[in-house]
């Protein structure tokens, strides 16, 4: 009892590789790495104060949006 030796971990790794296959394990590793990378980039964006004060413009300057604004009227029911 206690901690496992290196042989125990090698046997577990071998069984996992036989069950899932190396290709599926590689895909899981790539997905996990991409998720960690995206999380780190998101944390960097949240921490940068210079970018936070500047409003983000989602519409290019060359595009024009034509819209009509109407006032909302309240309906009274008796």
What do these coordinates show?
It is a single chain. Helices cover 59% and strands 0% of the residues. The chain has 78 residues and is mostly helical. The chain has a domain at 22-48. It is elongated. The protein starts with 5 loop residues before the first helix and ends in a 25-residue tail after the last helix.
Strand content: under 5%
DSSP strand count = 0
Order of helices and strands: HHH
Biggest β-sheet: count, sense, barrel? none
pLDDT under 50 segments (min length 5)?
Answer: none
| Overall pLDDT | 79
Radius of gyration: 28 Å
In helices, the fraction of residues equals 55-70%
Features:
78 residues; mainly alpha
Entry summary:
By secondary structure, the chain is mostly helical.
């Amino acid at each position: 009892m206690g901690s496992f030796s290196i042989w125990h971990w090698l046997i577990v790794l071998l069984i996992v590789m036989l069950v899932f296959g190396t290709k599926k394990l590689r895909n899981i590793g790539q997905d996990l790495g991409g998720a960690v990378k995206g999380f780190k980039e998101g944390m960097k964006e949240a921490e940068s104060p210079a970018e936070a004060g500047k409003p983000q413009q989602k519409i290019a300057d060359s595009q024009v949006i034509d819209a009509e604004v109407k006032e909302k009227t309240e309906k009274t029911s008796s």
